[in-house]
Amino acid sequence: MDQSKIRNFCIIAHIDHGKSTLADRIIEMTGLLTSREMQAQVLDNMDLERERGITIKAQTVRTVYRAKDGEEYIFNLIDTPGHVDFNYEVSRSLAACDGAILVVDAAQGIEAQTLANVYLALDHDLDVMPVINKIDLPSADPERVINEIEDIIGIEAQDAPRISAKTGENVEEVLEQIVAKIPAPVGDAKAPLKALIFDSVYDSYRGVIVFCRIKEGAVRRGTPILMMATGARAEVVEVGYFGAGQFIPCEELSAGMVGYITASLKNVKETRVGDTVTNADIPCAEPLPGYKKVNSMVFCGMYPADGAKYPDLRDALEKLQLNDAALQFEPETSVALGFGFRCGFLGLLHLEIIQERLEREYNLDLVTTAPSVIYKVHKTNGEVMELTNPSNLPDPSEIEYMEEPIVSAEIMVTTEFIGSIMQLCEERRGVYLGMEYMEETRALLKYDLPLNEIIYDFFDALKSRSRGYASFDYEMKGYERSELVKLDILVNREEVDALSFIVHGATAYERGRKMCEKLKEEIPRQLFEIPIQAAIGSKIIARETVKAMRKDVLAKCYGGDITRKKKLLEKQKEGKKRMRQVGNVEIPQKAFMSVLKLDDK
Amino acid sequence: MISKMELYIHIPFCIRKCAYCDFLSFPAGEERKRAYVEALREEIGGAAERGDVTTIFLGGGTPSVLSGEEIGILMETVRSHYRVLPGAEISLEANPGTLTAEKLAAWREAGINRLSIGLQSADNRELRTLGRIHTWEEFLEGYRMARKAGFENINIDLMSALPGQSSRTWRETLLKVTALEPEHISAYSLIVEEGTPFYEKYGEDARRREEGLACSWLPSEEEERQMYYDTKGILGEKGYGRYEISNYARKGYECRHNCGYWRRESYRGFGLGASSLVEEVRFKNTSCMEEYLGRDFSRREEERLSKEAQMEEFMFLGLRLAEGISTEEFCRKFGCAYAEVYGKVTKELLAKKLLCQENQRIFLTEQGIDVSNYVIAEFLF
Predict the structure, then answer these.
(1) H runs (alpha helix) in B280-322
(2) Which of A557, A581, A586 to mutate to test the interface with B (most CBs of B within 10 A)?
(3) DSSP per-residue codes, B12-25
(4) Which residue spans of chain B are classified as CATH 3.20.20.70?
(5) Which of helix, strand or coil describes residue A305?
(6) Three-state SS for A18?
(7) Contact B370/A552, CB-based, under 8 Å?
(8) Nearest to B347 by CA among B360, B337, B335, B357
(9) How far is CA B212 from the centre of its chain?
């Protein structure tokens, strides 16, 4: 394979700027698929992704383009996940490319994610080729956006194609520029095998399918391979490349190519994204740089609503884990919720995605506890404990001090909302680092924020306080010492372990009060009065009361009423089945979830 | 062939719809009423279910909007197709604003021996709020006429927990009514039903009260319960025993027809939207007047009750009665021990003092009545 005829690239964009639509057009216009075969947005193939308009798992497709110079070029379009939770996956996908197409919305211009993605691409030495999309919008202003790209990012953009991916207008020009501007891969096909894993999926027939970019050397059926970080070894069964929506086997993958390897590997954990594949007999000297094990940042308890479904939940989590090495889980028990799992996620979106998939694809009814981050608990005996479940916090007398994870956040916002967004960040214990004006009407705010302040509802609050205009990106910064306390919730004087959480001392009162108020709304009245209390240790800091049910009686029930009234009672009884018994109080399952959304003003 | 049964005849007409009423009832002209009576006669004549009739209840709506003659024709039709047992209780519901000496005499003539008068309140301001067509004074006149006509078994319907009602006005209503010495009093706590003008106005209030919050128009939950306790107290003093959640009577004057519903006796309902329970099948008539007048008497919403459903109903209806249910009767009816089916739940509810057990009977305690929906729901499978 002639390397000069290969182009490996990705498309980067802020959410909704048209990344997937452009990908669809490229695939369509390179002729691999007819228009009729195209599903709307070929690359996002999970239902959930299509509904939310985001990409979760990187998808890759190989197409053939006959350029105006009469030559045929192989395009490997590597799709990148579009969310901050999947930053590491983005970075590995970028490392598999030689260039990137930057899609910017002609009306909205540059957003926080645009910047973050561009910097990430530049960090990987990718040539970034801007494309102005959505020129068909009435509010489109391509010239302004081009100037913005040059001023803010500092890359040349005057000859950026002005396109409408939706209508297909000028997309041809994008294809030509890919040939002209994205560099061809380099790499010695005779050297020992060195390939970067940028994704893997599990297939029940073939085992793990490893997606990789061959940097040096070649791989074919029978090659003994070694994953340099995990140490897993196997013999290659099949190699091939990515058709749209299908795997197409080939003889050999060599330096510069993008494709897949199967080797009857049974677990995606052995084929970690970012790891280097080499020839076990003739290994390369050094692995590719940048591998790191992705760690869960956000944890929560997941319980089946129906306790009998516990084995089903375990099976479902195991199946999801086959395709998602970042998903962690281990069994745990809650007094209130019974048997379940403590699950670890890359971020809140990842959590929500897993939760939705469990509910939709596996038909499970779940109760999820408040998400938590990993706290470092420095104990008086010198031990450092990593705490993922608030219930496991040692007695305060055994704690020297605690640390919590901090992220560096960048928020892009139009100037009129700077005040309200700064106020939000202050409320969330943000440390102001600075502000840069991107242009007259927009600024980039920089804050350090504790992760536990943004995992609940920060994104929603950000959107509602900026009428949807603020965009947000963050990365882990490290751990900082913090005055943290464990807030317990007592229902009818009994502690409900599933509702405990760790909070900063200064916001504990406020949170405790809101939790009690919310629970009061959610817990239906019962035969006796139910106090709901928030406590730090033995100190009660907030209280609400669910008054006893005084009256629930049908005044009339004659011949014509019986069937209808019985149905009403059946409904009442049905509702009770969806409750959790804590002590002698029935708590509806949704009460456990409702406390996650306290900032609903 | 069913040995014994009750009959219900629905008259879906009234002078004017009251603001709280969600019954199948509406004003109609003379011609329509005549046509309806004709349809009723055909339905009664053609019904397949036959048996000896223990009670008849003409309900509505306001059956008293029919002329004395029409009631007479209806009763004649019943008697020509059913054997009405001697001593059968035959009730008719009447609006105080529709009573005349002529009608009352004609009803006596037709064999009506029990009158149920919808008074609702003795306070004229409350009557206006409810949208009633009569005053307290008009009721008094009608009541005296009824006594004069020879009615010796009279029920008076009352409503508590009305918007703007106070404990004081409710007590006054009870005292004024008991002074007349009717044989029976039904005292209902107002239900704000969806689809009524009351719902538009007080629905939000009713919802708030359900959640234990303060109301702007309706009496609070505490006041509502206090009125309920006062009812039992005052009526008890005056010699009326509570035999069902909302029904009070002098000894021997309990409404036999209604008790039949709670004891699950067979009943056949005639007329628009009327329900029936015959040989453990529940069904009802069409609620569409055009269909009914077009002689469509087919069974709607037919449900053959499983043994479980029968047990549920046995409990859910039987517990409305002050005497409750008999475990021995349960055993006889269903062929299995009560404790086997409901032992566990009964034990729990006894422990919570919501139920009481005496001499193989199980019944609701005072507190159990207040939250009877909760208690009854426990007996559903």
Answers:
(1) 289-293, 307-318
(2) A557
(3) -B-SS--TT--SS-
(4) 4-262
(5) coil
(6) coil
(7) yes
(8) B357
(9) 28
Per residue in A300-359, pLDDT (tens digit) is: 999 998 888 999 999 999 888 877 778 889 999 988 888 999 999 887 778 888 888 898
Whether B275 contacts B352, CB under 8 Å = no
Check: CB of residue B365 under 8 Å from CB of residue B355.
yes
Q: Is the peptide bond before A154 cis (omega within 30 degrees of 0)?
A: no
Peptide bond into B61 cis (omega under 30): yes
Return the bridge partners of B248, or none: B185, B242
Of the candidates A503, A418, A433, the one whose C-alpha atom is nearest the C-alpha of residue A474 is A433
Residue of A547, A553, A563 with shortest CB distance to B373: A553
A294/A558 Cα distance (integer angstroms): 66
DSSP-assigned beta bridge partners for residue A256: none
CA distances from A541 to A401, A484, A511, A514, A516 (A): 22, 15, 10, 11, 10
Q: What is the DSSP string of B174-192?
A: HHHHHHT--SEEEEEEP--
A120: CB partners within 8 A, 6+ apart: A12, A87, A90, A91, A94
CATH superfamily of B4-262: Aldolase class I (3.20.20.70)
CA distance B44 to B74: 9
Inter-chain residue contact B212 with A573, CB threshold 8 Å: no
SS3 state at B262:
helix
State the Cα–Cα distance between residues A429 and A210, nearest whole angstrom: 42
Residues 539-578 of A with CB under 8 A from B: 546-547, 549-560, 562-563, 566, 569-570, 572-573, 576
User: Looking at the DSSP assignment, which residues form a beta bridge with residue A102?
Assistant: A12, A130
* Secondary structure (3-state) at B32: helix
Q: In sequence order, what are the residues at sequence separation of 6 or more whose Cβ sits closer than 8 angstroms to the Cβ of residue A113? A: A13, A14, A15, A82, A84, A471, A473
Please tell me the pTM assigned to this model: 0.69
State both tokens at B284.
């009802």
- Percent helix, strand and coil across chain A, each to the nearest 5: 30, 35, 35
CA distance B222 to chain A (A): 7
Q: Give the Cα separation of A294 and A346 in Å (integer).
A: 8
Helix or strand holding residue B117 (H, E): strand B114-120
In chain B, where does the domain assigned CATH 1.10.10 lie?
A: 307-381
B246 and chain A in contact, CB less than 8 A:
yes
- List, in sequence order, every residue forming a beta bridge with B268; answer none if it has no partner: B7
Looking at this predicted complex, what is its ipTM? Answer: 0.90
Decide: helix, strand or coil at residue B281. Answer: strand
Q: Cα–Cα distance between A158 and A145 in angstroms, integer?
A: 10
Give the DSSP letter of residue A584.
T
A463 alpha carbon, distance to own chain's centre: 18
Residue range B307-381 forms a domain whose CATH class is: mainly alpha
**Alpha-carbon torsion A12, A16, A352, A534, what sign?**
positive
Beta carbons of B253 and B238 less than 8 angstroms apart: no
Question: Do β-strands A372-373 and A375-379 pair in parallel, antiparallel, or remain unpaired?
Answer: unpaired
Rounded CA gap, A73 and A179, in Å? Answer: 8
pLDDT tens digit at each of 381 positions of chain B:
568 999 999 999 999 999 999 888 999 999 999 999 999 999 999 998 888 999 999 998 899 999 999 999 999 999 999 999 999 999 999 999 899 999 999 999 999 999 999 999 999 999 999 999 999 999 999 999 999 999 999 999 999 999 999 999 999 999 999 999 999 999 999 999 999 999 999 999 999 888 878 888 999 988 999 999 999 999 999 999 999 999 999 999 999 999 999 999 999 999 999 999 999 999 999 999 999 999 999 999 999 999 999 999 999 999 999 999 999 999 999 999 999 999 999 999 999 999 999 999 999 999 999 999 999 999 998
| A-chain residue closest to B352, CA distance | A527
